[in-house]
Design goal:
This protein has 129 residues and is mainly alpha-helical. The chain is 52% helix and 8% strand. It has a two-stranded parallel ribbon with strand order 1-2. It is elongated, with a radius of gyration of 19 Å.
Length: 129
C-alpha cells in the first residue's frame, strides 16, 4: 500500500502518540498495533470511497448514499454492504412486513433507520441514540 505524504504524516504522528505513553514496551507495541489497524481500515475505506463513492454496494440497503457523518472511521464494511451481515435476513423480512412504525433505539449515525425508511416508504421510522 502506498501512502500519500499526508497519510504518512498522520501515520507517524499516531505512532509517536502511541509510543509516548509511560507503560511497558509490550503495552506500547499493542497500542501501536491497534493504531495501525485503525489507520489501515480508514485508508482502505477512503480508497473504496474514491473508487465507487459513498454508495452502499450490496446488502439490504444497496444503493443508499451515505452522508459525511456516516463516513467516519472504518466504514468499509458498510460501503461493501457486509456490515453486520448476520442481520440482513432480518431486515429483508422486516421490509416485506406491513409495519406501521419501526423504532430504532441506539441508532448512532442512522444507518439502519435511514435504510429501513428507504426500503419501507409507507412506514414511520423513529430513531433515537
Amino acid at each position: 500500500m502506498n501512502f500519500t505524504p499526508q497519510q504518512s504524516a498522520i501515520l507517524l504522528d499516531e505512532a509517536r502518540k502511541a509510543l509516548a505513553h509511560d507503560e511497558p514496551h509490550t503495552m506500547k507495541a499493542q497500542r501501536l498495533t491497534n493504531t495501525l489497524f485503525i489507520l489501515r481500515a480508514q485508508m482502505l475505506a477512503h480508497g473504496m470511497r474514491q473508487s465507487f463513492g459513498a454508495v452502499v454496494q450490496n446488502g439490504p440497503f444497496k444503493g443508499m448514499k451515505l452522508t459525511p457523518g456516516a463516513m467516519l472511521g472504518g466504514y468499509a464494511p458498510i460501503l461493501l454492504g457486509t456490515y453486520e451481515h448476520e442481520l440482513h435476513a432480518t431486515f429483508e423480512r422486516m421490509a416485506a412486513h406491513p409495519f406501521g412504525r419501526v423504532l430504532n433505539i441506539g441508532c448512532s449515525f442512522g444507518y439502519y433507520a435511514v435504510g429501513l425508511a428507504l426500503r419501507m416508504p409507507n412506514v414511520t421510522v423513529h430513531a433515537f441514540d
